[in-house]
Amino acid sequence: MSISARDADDYAAQLLVLTERLTERLSDETEALEAHRPLDIRESVEETRSLSALYRQESARLKADPSRLTGLSAAHKQSLRKATEAFVAISERHARAVEAAKTISEGLMKAIADSLNETRKPSLTYGPGASIKDRTPQSLNYGFKA
């Protein structure tokens, strides 16, 4: 899907709506992540993903053909610039929140796996070539596929 517009002002208006909607989605997700409620965003992730894909596509189209905005009114140019600045600011904040959530999740998974490995009793052997066996890292799903 892509933006279909009559002229530069129409294209800018549609791009502005897309940018504002994506900014709103990222803002909501960032607030949930910063409040340590990552499950609150699971219902909106698909919408955010599709909006992001459309935004990337339109950004690439605009970069390849800047003439799409030739003749753009000053008012539309200013509102698009402000919306883009707000989007960049919230996307940087969102990236930090996602990275923090990822770090926390990975830390929890490692702590659980380490705990499992510590509680498992190794099988000891005696004699020549004796070694501790069965001390390999454990999968949290015990080898079963979901």
Automatic annotation (TrEMBL):
Residue span of region Disordered: 126-146
Polar residues composition-biased segments: 137-146
Keywords of this entry: Cell projection, Cilium, Flagellum
Protein name, per record: Flagellar basal-body protein FlbY
The species this protein was found in: Asticcacaulis excentricus
